[in-house]
Amino acid sequence: MTVDVVVVGAGIVGAASARALARRGLRVTVLDRRAAASGTTAHGEGNLLVSDKGPGPELVLAQHAAARWPSLVAELADELGGPGGGFPPIEYDPKGGLVAATTVEGAGPLREFAARQRGAGVDAREVDVAVALDLEPELNPGITAAVWYPEDAQVQPVAAAEALLASARRAGATVRTGVDVVGALRDGDRIVGVRTTAGDVPAGAVVLAAGPWSGVVAERLGVVLPVRPRRGMVLVTTRMPHVVRHKVYDGDYVGATQSGDAALRTSSVVESTAAGTVLIGSSREQVGFDDRLRAVVLREMAARAIRLFPFLAAASAMRTYLGFRPYVPDHLPIVGPDPRTPGLWVATGHEGAGIGLGPVSGELLADLFTGAAPAVDPAPFRVDRPAVVGADHGAHHGADQTETIAEAS
Amino acid sequence: MSARTVVVVGAGPAGLSAARAAARAGAEVTLLDASDQVGGQFWRHSARPAPDERRYHHGWGTFTALRDVVATHPRVTVLTSAQVWALERLDDGVRLRVLVGPADAAGREHLTLTPDALVLATGAHDRTLPFPGWQLPGVTTAGAAQALAKAERVAVGDRVVVAGAGPFLLPVATSLLRTGARVLSVHEAATPASLARGWGSRPAGLVGTAHKLGELAGYVGALARHGVAYRVGEAVVAARGDGRVEEVTVARVDARWSPVPGTERTVAADAVCVSHCFTPRLELAVAAGCAISPDRFVVVDAAQRSTVPGVWAAGELTGIGGAEAALAEGWVAGHHAATGPGGPDPADGSDGADESDGADESDGADAGLARAVRRRARSVDFARRLEAAHGIRGGWTAWLRDDTLVCRCEEVDAGTLRAAACATGSTDLRSVRLTSRAGLGPCQARVCGRTVAELVGARDDAPGACGASPPATPDRRPLVVPVRLGDLATLPDDPPPGAPQPGDPLPGGPDATSTRPEDPRVPSP
Amino acid sequence: MTAPSPHDAGPRPLTITLDGEPFAGTQGQTIAGMLLAARRRAWRTTSVAAAPRGVFCGIGVCFDCLVTVNGARDVRACLRRAADGDVVETQHDPLPGASA
């Protein structure tokens, strides 16, 4: 039986896309070469942030996401049973974020950034050190500026993605894991399904939601898509009596997300989890898909975290993991049809914001797919924008650059 | 040309033997152990060895000879209290990150090693299958009882039940007796039939394992003289008590280790030591990228070479063969690590020389190597017999209840685990762990990892192309042990490739950088 | 009978405290060994069930025996040699309050 849509990738973006499409009555099959929610989704921190986004289309999407998450959480709880109902809790926590500058030079840019965000409707409240310490008693009192963002939230990303997938299944979707896409089924120019390691999967349309591997899968489908991996490492401490109450990060994070610089960048993102451990993120490296541990990266992350929270010096890091975030040269997600290739749709490129933006991106894709009125303006995320379709040469250049960086590091 | 540098991680039988063989073959050797003494778990001993020390150990003479050789050899640096906490893969080798100082102390000294060759001899630890009440104080692994008896002459309890599977239970019971504990009984889950199948069949190698069997028979006899019954086909299936173990339930099990209904009986005890053979410590091997076999051992060739250039492995990492096999494998690994890829092939020993002592100093390296190769061949047979006789059988899950803890750290019970796997429909270990929290506590699934994987039917998906996330094995731990953030923050820079290492604290050792000029015992602010 | 045997000519005595209570032992003993020799079987309290834990693996694998030593958390009592005057504290890290 031919399905209406095959979604490639069972991370949170693929899961959300499958759910949104299936709930509109479409027959959906989700494919993943590994297990569901095992790639980028499983290797981040679960950030649902507006605080790190400057005015622009990504912020608009993030604001829509921040508004959408609470109702989505309620829908999933109704559908799957909340905590105690069998499905693991997705640990959605609208805890708010506190951004602090740790240097004298960092204070001004942070305040200016917050002011511009306020102009775009973000609840960004500049607070003095006393208030910041009230919000976060363990915070280093030597901080130079702080901004409080009540709209920031956190979620357990794997549980969230699994919940979206479970919901999609209930709406009739099929999820097949361990199935690798190796090529496109074509009818002339049109893509009419995928060839996989488990046979052909004919479909009315293909949604590419393979995160940082989207560029690779696109190539197998005969399309160029300049999605590249950016590597991030996370440290997890043992459980501690100290609690970091909110998402707390240093202002350099803002610069790091919006920079295309290849060099290692770290900024500290510190938060407690529901289990009492402390998560520390996140480095940003452009080293291709190199997954080798670099201890000096952990050093930089640890040093920055301690600068924010001195108590962390005595904390034991018990685990570290790394993930690859999908990014596009203009640092905006890609959501929508690929006008170069009829039948191909794309939902990827969310960089480090995919957990927060995934659900609304899936819904936006479904809006466009079914001709419904989109909740946000889709134009900035379209496939045929210059940063995406004009990047044929850039993609190759990027690959070369990545190799050079890997050697140099 | 300067001598090849070899780092050996783990100073148990395999590591000691490897260090000696590598030094004999001309390499500059650094032998690391996290403990503050050499000997590993097998020869774990009192901080001040007592006159009767050898009573607690098998092959104590072999140990002291090896220990003395590596301690006095001009090309061996022995570094104890040296915890390798990370291994970085480089384009042309590996880099070890080490903290030197008291266990888990803050402010230990950093050491970075980039050897020409690495020998992993990190050994194994007990595997214990969960059962209701196993989290109660007084329930320990058999290895805990053994370590406390050997190193501190402390018994884990007064009235002790020993249970599980494998010949290791016998020396543990003997050690407990020596510390003054009363051993009530030893329960081996393997049934008489599988014991007969594993140990009784006669194919090649029986001659080689005969003395092993004699050793075990000796233990059984010693236990019998103390009135300790060795009961096969039985398991401890529950422990109960208020705040500590007070009694256990013992039951007969069938060939698949399912308890036989109606055979349960209660035994009052204040300690119960339970182990079901061993599981290798694979962290460094996995971090190095070594291929791991489906039964979770490091894959090595005849020269004990792993699939990663420059990395060798020996001892329990490559198969549970016991100390004698570890000595032999260490010898082979150390020799070839020292001579490098261009070295001679391992000899296929045929000189019929003396085979009594792995630490024989009386002859040349070649004859010793040849002997080691022969001994190692027998160990393969021993490992196979061990698995045939005592290997874990799937029926044990019948003694689990929904409220039986599987993950001791995060206190996740079997019911929660099954529910998480069922609700998400996932058999992916990573997903189940993240949604249930099983395996996410301080031990990082060392205790429960394989059990969780087996309970949820997890599989290792084949890694995909170009940087797919590696399969979620329970053995992947890039941080080999917890590290304080304050210590991470003071890590020295990567040594530039090929550059001389300033301040090398190890004369003649491999490239090494050490930082923190101040007293490493002073905690960092 | 579970005390260390007097095998050594002069094992140096030492004293540590656990939550203020003194424990006597000798040089070379681990913290866990000292506590067990004094018949103390449990010291850590778990986070979820607030249940007692002591030594399980005895060789640094299971992290059940964690204690705080001289202010440093997460020290494996089964590995750490006691030093005279060590101030040892039991650990109990409850789960964070109702978040989420």
Automatic annotation (TrEMBL), chain A:
Domain FAD dependent oxidoreductase intervals: 4-368
Top-rank lineage group of the source organism: Bacteria
Pfam families, alphabetized: DAO (PF01266)
Alphabetized UniProt keyword annotations: Oxidoreductase
PANTHER family the record matches: FAD-DEPENDENT OXIDOREDUCTASE DOMAIN-CONTAINING PROTEIN 1, SARCOSINE DEHYDROGENASE-RELATED
Record protein name field: FAD-dependent oxidoreductase
From TrEMBL, chain B:
Biased composition (Pro residues): 493-508
InterPro entries: BFD-like_2Fe2S-bd_dom (IPR007419), BFD-like_2Fe2S-bd_dom_sf (IPR041854), FAD/NAD-bd_sf (IPR036188), FAD/NAD-binding_dom (IPR023753), Metab_Enz_Cyan_OpOx_G3PDH (IPR051691), Opine_Oxase_asu/HCN_bsu (IPR017224)
Record flagged with keyword Oxidoreductase: yes
Organism, as annotated: Isoptericola hypogeus
Protein name in UniProt: FAD/NAD(P)-binding oxidoreductase
Residues in FAD/NAD(P)-binding domain copies: 5-330
Alphabetic keyword roster: Oxidoreductase
Biased composition (Acidic residues): 351-364
PANTHER family (UniProt xref): ANAEROBIC GLYCEROL-3-PHOSPHATE DEHYDROGENASE SUBUNIT B
Lineage: Bacteria, Bacillati, Actinomycetota, Actinomycetes, Micrococcales
TrEMBL record, chain C:
InterPro entries according to UniProt: 2Fe-2S-bd_N (IPR042204), 2Fe-2S_ferredoxin-like_sf (IPR036010)
Keywords: Oxidoreductase
SUPFAM superfamilies cross-referenced by the UniProt entry: 2Fe-2S ferredoxin-like
Protein name according to UniProt: (2Fe-2S)-binding protein
Natural source organism: Isoptericola hypogeus
